[in-house]
Design goal:
With about 350 residues, this protein is α+β, with helices and mostly antiparallel strands. The protein has nine helices and 13 strands. Strand 10 and strand 11 form a beta hairpin. The chain is globular, with a radius of gyration of 21 Å.
Length: about 350
Protein backbone atom coordinates (compact mmCIF):
# COMPACT_ATOMS: atom_id res chain seq x y z
CA UNK A 1 0.00 0.00 0.00
CA UNK A 2 2.81 2.39 0.88
CA UNK A 3 4.49 1.70 -2.44
CA UNK A 4 1.26 2.43 -4.35
CA UNK A 5 0.81 5.66 -2.40
CA UNK A 6 4.34 6.80 -3.21
CA UNK A 7 3.83 6.04 -6.90
CA UNK A 8 0.63 8.04 -6.91
CA UNK A 9 2.34 11.00 -5.24
CA UNK A 10 5.25 10.86 -7.67
CA UNK A 11 2.85 10.76 -10.60
CA UNK A 12 0.99 13.79 -9.27
CA UNK A 13 4.27 15.69 -8.81
CA UNK A 14 5.37 14.80 -12.35
CA UNK A 15 2.04 15.97 -13.76
CA UNK A 16 2.27 19.22 -11.83
CA UNK A 17 5.80 19.85 -13.10
CA UNK A 18 4.64 19.13 -16.66
CA UNK A 19 1.75 21.57 -16.30
CA UNK A 20 4.07 24.25 -14.96
CA UNK A 21 6.45 23.79 -17.88
CA UNK A 22 3.58 23.95 -20.36
CA UNK A 23 2.22 27.15 -18.82
CA UNK A 24 5.70 28.72 -18.79
CA UNK A 25 6.39 27.79 -22.41
CA UNK A 26 3.09 29.19 -23.64
CA UNK A 27 3.46 32.32 -21.50
CA UNK A 28 6.86 33.05 -23.08
CA UNK A 29 5.49 32.59 -26.60
CA UNK A 30 2.45 34.72 -25.86
CA UNK A 31 4.46 37.53 -24.25
CA UNK A 32 6.80 37.70 -27.24
CA UNK A 33 3.95 37.84 -29.75
CA UNK A 34 2.01 40.34 -27.64
CA UNK A 35 5.01 42.68 -27.61
CA UNK A 36 5.30 42.38 -31.40
CA UNK A 37 1.61 43.11 -31.97
CA UNK A 38 1.44 45.97 -29.46
CA UNK A 39 4.47 47.59 -31.06
CA UNK A 40 2.43 48.02 -34.24
CA UNK A 41 -1.13 48.45 -32.95
CA UNK A 42 -0.59 50.03 -29.54
CA UNK A 43 -0.80 48.72 -25.99
CA UNK A 44 -3.89 46.99 -24.69
CA UNK A 45 -6.07 49.00 -22.35
CA UNK A 46 -6.32 48.14 -18.68
CA UNK A 47 -10.00 47.29 -19.20
CA UNK A 48 -9.24 44.69 -21.88
CA UNK A 49 -6.50 43.16 -19.75
CA UNK A 50 -8.92 42.91 -16.85
CA UNK A 51 -11.52 41.25 -19.10
CA UNK A 52 -8.97 38.66 -20.21
CA UNK A 53 -7.85 37.85 -16.66
CA UNK A 54 -11.42 37.67 -15.35
CA UNK A 55 -12.51 35.40 -18.20
CA UNK A 56 -9.50 33.12 -17.70
CA UNK A 57 -10.28 32.79 -13.99
CA UNK A 58 -14.06 32.60 -14.03
CA UNK A 59 -14.65 30.58 -17.22
CA UNK A 60 -11.43 28.60 -17.77
CA UNK A 61 -10.48 28.09 -14.13
CA UNK A 62 -7.17 29.97 -13.87
CA UNK A 63 -5.65 33.36 -14.66
CA UNK A 64 -2.65 31.43 -16.00
CA UNK A 65 -4.63 31.00 -19.22
CA UNK A 66 -4.78 34.79 -19.72
CA UNK A 67 -1.59 35.38 -21.82
CA UNK A 68 -3.02 33.99 -25.06
CA UNK A 69 -6.27 35.87 -24.47
CA UNK A 70 -4.22 39.06 -24.38
CA UNK A 71 -2.58 38.18 -27.70
CA UNK A 72 -5.95 37.47 -29.29
CA UNK A 73 -7.30 40.77 -27.97
CA UNK A 74 -4.33 42.70 -29.34
CA UNK A 75 -4.74 41.16 -32.81
CA UNK A 76 -8.52 41.58 -32.81
CA UNK A 77 -8.57 45.02 -31.22
CA UNK A 78 -10.99 44.00 -28.45
CA UNK A 79 -11.78 41.12 -26.11
CA UNK A 80 -14.25 38.42 -27.21
CA UNK A 81 -15.82 35.70 -25.10
CA UNK A 82 -15.41 32.12 -26.30
CA UNK A 83 -11.71 32.14 -27.12
CA UNK A 84 -9.66 29.03 -26.29
CA UNK A 85 -6.07 29.81 -25.17
CA UNK A 86 -3.26 27.72 -26.68
CA UNK A 87 -2.18 26.23 -23.36
CA UNK A 88 -5.77 25.44 -22.36
CA UNK A 89 -6.19 23.63 -25.68
CA UNK A 90 -3.00 21.63 -25.17
CA UNK A 91 -3.49 20.83 -21.48
CA UNK A 92 -7.26 20.44 -21.21
CA UNK A 93 -8.98 20.04 -24.58
CA UNK A 94 -6.59 17.65 -26.33
CA UNK A 95 -6.40 15.10 -23.49
CA UNK A 96 -10.18 15.20 -23.07
CA UNK A 97 -11.23 15.17 -26.72
CA UNK A 98 -8.40 13.42 -28.59
CA UNK A 99 -6.78 11.36 -25.85
CA UNK A 100 -4.15 8.78 -26.71
CA UNK A 101 -5.77 8.18 -30.11
CA UNK A 102 -4.51 11.59 -31.21
CA UNK A 103 -0.96 10.27 -31.11
CA UNK A 104 -1.77 7.96 -34.02
CA UNK A 105 -2.04 10.90 -36.41
CA UNK A 106 1.70 11.54 -35.92
CA UNK A 107 2.48 8.11 -37.36
CA UNK A 108 2.39 8.98 -41.03
CA UNK A 109 2.79 5.37 -42.13
CA UNK A 110 -0.60 4.71 -40.48
CA UNK A 111 -2.56 7.51 -42.14
CA UNK A 112 -3.74 5.57 -45.19
CA UNK A 113 -4.71 2.60 -43.05
CA UNK A 114 -6.77 4.80 -40.73
CA UNK A 115 -8.38 7.12 -43.27
CA UNK A 116 -8.59 4.66 -46.16
CA UNK A 117 -8.69 7.57 -48.62
CA UNK A 118 -7.64 7.93 -52.25
CA UNK A 119 -6.98 11.62 -51.59
CA UNK A 120 -3.50 10.95 -50.20
CA UNK A 121 -0.38 11.44 -52.37
CA UNK A 122 1.28 8.45 -50.66
CA UNK A 123 3.41 6.25 -52.92
CA UNK A 124 5.03 3.90 -50.44
CA UNK A 125 6.09 3.40 -46.83
CA UNK A 126 9.23 2.37 -45.01
CA UNK A 127 8.43 0.48 -41.80
CA UNK A 128 11.04 -1.31 -39.71
CA UNK A 129 13.41 -1.20 -42.67
CA UNK A 130 10.93 -2.93 -44.98
CA UNK A 131 9.35 -1.32 -48.03
CA UNK A 132 5.59 -1.32 -48.58
CA UNK A 133 3.48 -0.06 -51.47
CA UNK A 134 0.50 2.24 -50.81
CA UNK A 135 -1.70 -0.84 -50.28
CA UNK A 136 0.77 -2.10 -47.66
CA UNK A 137 1.98 -4.99 -49.79
CA UNK A 138 5.67 -5.77 -49.28
CA UNK A 139 8.06 -4.68 -52.03
CA UNK A 140 11.78 -5.30 -52.34
CA UNK A 141 14.24 -2.47 -51.89
CA UNK A 142 15.03 -2.36 -55.61
CA UNK A 143 11.34 -2.43 -56.55
CA UNK A 144 10.63 0.32 -54.03
CA UNK A 145 13.19 2.66 -55.60
CA UNK A 146 11.68 2.02 -59.05
CA UNK A 147 8.18 2.60 -57.67
CA UNK A 148 9.13 5.93 -56.13
CA UNK A 149 10.28 7.46 -59.40
CA UNK A 150 7.89 5.73 -61.75
CA UNK A 151 5.92 8.92 -62.40
CA UNK A 152 7.83 11.85 -60.87
CA UNK A 153 11.49 12.80 -60.84
CA UNK A 154 11.41 13.59 -57.15
CA UNK A 155 9.54 12.48 -54.04
CA UNK A 156 8.98 13.81 -50.53
CA UNK A 157 9.93 11.69 -47.55
CA UNK A 158 8.27 12.45 -44.20
CA UNK A 159 9.37 10.55 -41.08
CA UNK A 160 6.85 9.26 -38.59
CA UNK A 161 6.20 11.58 -35.61
CA UNK A 162 7.36 14.67 -37.48
CA UNK A 163 5.35 17.87 -37.84
CA UNK A 164 5.67 21.56 -38.84
CA UNK A 165 7.87 20.63 -41.78
CA UNK A 166 10.56 19.08 -39.60
CA UNK A 167 12.48 16.14 -41.02
CA UNK A 168 11.08 16.41 -44.56
CA UNK A 169 13.49 15.38 -47.31
CA UNK A 170 13.12 15.98 -51.04
CA UNK A 171 14.69 13.02 -52.84
CA UNK A 172 15.66 12.56 -56.47
CA UNK A 173 16.55 9.25 -58.07
CA UNK A 174 20.27 9.74 -57.55
CA UNK A 175 19.75 10.42 -53.84
CA UNK A 176 18.52 6.96 -52.93
CA UNK A 177 19.36 3.35 -53.67
CA UNK A 178 18.37 -0.07 -52.31
CA UNK A 179 21.48 0.08 -50.12
CA UNK A 180 20.76 3.50 -48.62
CA UNK A 181 17.07 2.88 -47.90
CA UNK A 182 18.01 1.28 -44.60
CA UNK A 183 19.44 4.58 -43.36
CA UNK A 184 16.03 6.22 -43.42
CA UNK A 185 13.68 6.09 -40.41
CA UNK A 186 10.11 4.84 -40.66
CA UNK A 187 8.14 7.18 -42.86
CA UNK A 188 6.05 7.86 -45.93
CA UNK A 189 7.10 8.66 -49.49
CA UNK A 190 4.74 11.10 -51.21
CA UNK A 191 4.56 12.31 -54.79
CA UNK A 192 4.72 16.08 -55.36
CA UNK A 193 1.39 17.84 -55.82
CA UNK A 194 1.42 20.24 -58.76
CA UNK A 195 -0.43 23.10 -57.16
CA UNK A 196 -3.17 25.15 -58.77
CA UNK A 197 -1.94 28.03 -60.92
CA UNK A 198 -3.39 30.63 -58.59
CA UNK A 199 -0.86 29.63 -55.92
CA UNK A 200 2.07 29.87 -58.33
CA UNK A 201 1.66 33.63 -58.31
CA UNK A 202 2.01 33.62 -54.53
CA UNK A 203 4.66 30.99 -53.84
CA UNK A 204 6.14 29.37 -56.97
CA UNK A 205 8.95 27.46 -55.24
CA UNK A 206 6.93 25.57 -52.63
CA UNK A 207 3.44 24.10 -52.49
CA UNK A 208 0.89 26.29 -50.71
CA UNK A 209 -0.80 24.43 -47.87
CA UNK A 210 -4.37 24.97 -46.75
CA UNK A 211 -4.84 24.29 -43.03
CA UNK A 212 -8.41 23.26 -42.26
CA UNK A 213 -9.53 22.59 -38.69
CA UNK A 214 -12.60 20.43 -38.15
CA UNK A 215 -14.30 19.84 -34.82
CA UNK A 216 -16.82 17.30 -33.56
CA UNK A 217 -20.04 18.82 -32.31
CA UNK A 218 -21.84 17.82 -29.15
CA UNK A 219 -24.44 15.90 -31.20
CA UNK A 220 -21.73 13.92 -33.04
CA UNK A 221 -21.73 15.94 -36.24
CA UNK A 222 -18.56 17.52 -37.65
CA UNK A 223 -17.99 21.10 -38.85
CA UNK A 224 -15.18 23.09 -40.37
CA UNK A 225 -14.31 25.70 -37.75
CA UNK A 226 -11.12 27.41 -39.02
CA UNK A 227 -9.01 27.81 -42.15
CA UNK A 228 -5.86 29.58 -43.25
CA UNK A 229 -3.38 29.38 -46.13
CA UNK A 230 0.30 28.74 -45.46
CA UNK A 231 2.83 30.08 -47.93
CA UNK A 232 6.56 29.42 -48.20
CA UNK A 233 9.33 31.95 -48.74
CA UNK A 234 11.52 32.31 -51.83
CA UNK A 235 14.30 30.14 -50.41
CA UNK A 236 12.02 27.37 -49.18
CA UNK A 237 11.40 24.18 -51.15
CA UNK A 238 8.45 23.42 -48.90
CA UNK A 239 6.44 25.40 -46.35
CA UNK A 240 8.19 25.60 -42.98
CA UNK A 241 6.68 26.83 -39.73
CA UNK A 242 9.71 29.02 -38.94
CA UNK A 243 9.37 31.11 -42.10
CA UNK A 244 5.81 30.66 -43.42
CA UNK A 245 3.34 33.43 -44.16
CA UNK A 246 -0.18 32.63 -42.96
CA UNK A 247 -3.27 34.18 -44.48
CA UNK A 248 -6.67 33.72 -42.80
CA UNK A 249 -9.48 32.35 -44.96
CA UNK A 250 -13.13 33.39 -44.71
CA UNK A 251 -15.08 30.18 -44.09
CA UNK A 252 -18.24 31.33 -45.85
CA UNK A 253 -16.59 32.26 -49.15
CA UNK A 254 -13.19 30.55 -49.13
CA UNK A 255 -11.60 33.93 -49.84
CA UNK A 256 -8.30 35.10 -48.39
CA UNK A 257 -8.13 38.01 -46.03
CA UNK A 258 -6.57 41.15 -47.48
CA UNK A 259 -3.65 40.75 -45.04
CA UNK A 260 -1.43 37.88 -43.99
CA UNK A 261 0.91 37.39 -41.05
CA UNK A 262 4.64 36.81 -40.82
CA UNK A 263 6.04 34.36 -38.21
CA UNK A 264 6.31 37.27 -35.73
CA UNK A 265 2.67 38.13 -36.53
CA UNK A 266 3.57 41.29 -38.39
CA UNK A 267 0.85 42.03 -40.95
CA UNK A 268 1.58 42.11 -44.69
CA UNK A 269 -0.83 42.80 -47.53
CA UNK A 270 1.15 40.92 -50.16
CA UNK A 271 3.70 38.13 -50.32
CA UNK A 272 7.05 39.73 -49.40
CA UNK A 273 8.93 37.83 -52.13
CA UNK A 274 6.54 37.74 -55.09
CA UNK A 275 4.68 40.96 -54.29
CA UNK A 276 1.33 39.30 -55.05
CA UNK A 277 -1.58 40.80 -53.13
CA UNK A 278 -3.80 38.54 -51.03
CA UNK A 279 -6.97 40.53 -51.77
CA UNK A 280 -9.79 38.92 -53.74
CA UNK A 281 -8.12 35.50 -54.02
CA UNK A 282 -10.55 32.63 -53.56
CA UNK A 283 -9.16 29.19 -52.76
CA UNK A 284 -9.96 26.88 -55.70
CA UNK A 285 -11.91 23.81 -54.61
CA UNK A 286 -12.33 25.18 -51.08
CA UNK A 287 -15.84 23.79 -50.57
CA UNK A 288 -14.77 20.37 -51.81
CA UNK A 289 -11.75 20.33 -49.49
CA UNK A 290 -13.87 21.37 -46.50
CA UNK A 291 -16.49 18.72 -47.26
CA UNK A 292 -13.83 16.04 -47.71
CA UNK A 293 -12.16 16.76 -44.37
CA UNK A 294 -15.48 16.91 -42.55
CA UNK A 295 -16.53 13.60 -44.09
CA UNK A 296 -13.27 11.90 -43.15
CA UNK A 297 -13.46 13.29 -39.62
CA UNK A 298 -17.04 12.05 -39.34
CA UNK A 299 -15.74 8.57 -40.12
CA UNK A 300 -13.14 8.84 -37.37
CA UNK A 301 -15.23 9.99 -34.38
CA UNK A 302 -12.59 9.13 -31.78
CA UNK A 303 -11.11 12.61 -32.26
CA UNK A 304 -12.71 15.87 -31.20
CA UNK A 305 -10.56 18.21 -33.28
CA UNK A 306 -8.30 17.62 -36.30
CA UNK A 307 -5.98 19.89 -38.26
CA UNK A 308 -5.73 18.96 -41.95
CA UNK A 309 -2.93 20.15 -44.25
CA UNK A 310 -4.29 20.20 -47.78
CA UNK A 311 -2.75 20.93 -51.18
CA UNK A 312 -4.97 21.92 -54.11
CA UNK A 313 -3.82 20.61 -57.50
CA UNK A 314 -4.31 21.90 -61.04
CA UNK A 315 -7.75 20.24 -61.28
CA UNK A 316 -8.88 21.86 -57.99
CA UNK A 317 -8.66 18.46 -56.28
CA UNK A 318 -7.71 18.42 -52.61
CA UNK A 319 -4.83 16.19 -51.52
CA UNK A 320 -4.24 15.38 -47.86
CA UNK A 321 -0.60 16.08 -47.06
CA UNK A 322 -0.96 15.49 -43.32
CA UNK A 323 -3.51 15.32 -40.53
CA UNK A 324 -2.78 16.14 -36.92
CA UNK A 325 -4.72 15.69 -33.72
CA UNK A 326 -1.81 16.07 -31.32
CA UNK A 327 0.10 19.21 -32.33
CA UNK A 328 -2.59 21.10 -34.25
CA UNK A 329 -2.23 24.49 -32.62
CA UNK A 330 -5.30 26.72 -32.79
CA UNK A 331 -3.80 30.03 -31.61
CA UNK A 332 -3.50 31.60 -35.07
CA UNK A 333 -7.09 30.91 -36.07
CA UNK A 334 -8.38 32.01 -32.66
CA UNK A 335 -6.54 35.33 -32.91
CA UNK A 336 -7.65 36.07 -36.46
CA UNK A 337 -10.96 34.41 -37.34
CA UNK A 338 -11.98 33.23 -33.87
CA UNK A 339 -13.56 32.54 -31.51
CA UNK A 340 -13.78 29.39 -33.63
CA UNK A 341 -14.95 26.77 -31.14
CA UNK A 342 -17.97 28.24 -29.38
CA UNK A 343 -20.83 25.89 -28.63
CA UNK A 344 -18.63 22.81 -28.16
CA UNK A 345 -18.47 22.93 -24.38
CA UNK A 346 -14.68 23.09 -24.33
CA UNK A 347 -14.60 25.92 -21.79
CA UNK A 348 -16.09 23.59 -19.16
CA UNK A 349 -13.78 20.60 -19.68
CA UNK A 350 -11.42 21.70 -16.88
CA UNK A 351 -14.19 21.04 -14.34
CA UNK A 352 -14.20 17.30 -15.00
Amino acid sequence: MASASIKRILKQVAQRVQRERCHAQHARMARTLLANVEQKSGALSAAVKRQARDYAQEVLGSTRFAPWLLVYSAVKGNFAEGWIPGDYYQMVVLPAKNGQVGQATNTKTLTNRLLNSTDLPDIAYLIDGIGYAADYSVVSAAALVDLLFEIDERVFFKPDRSFQGQGIRILEKGDISPETLGRLPDGVFQRPVIQHEIFDTLTPNSTATLRLTTAKLQDGGVELRAADLRLGRAGDRYVRAVSEIRVPVDLASGTLWSCGFMPDWRRVESHPDTGTSFSHIRIPGFDHAAAMCSRLHQGFPHLGCIGWDIAIDREETAKIMEWNARHNSIVFSEATTGPSFKGLGWESLWKR
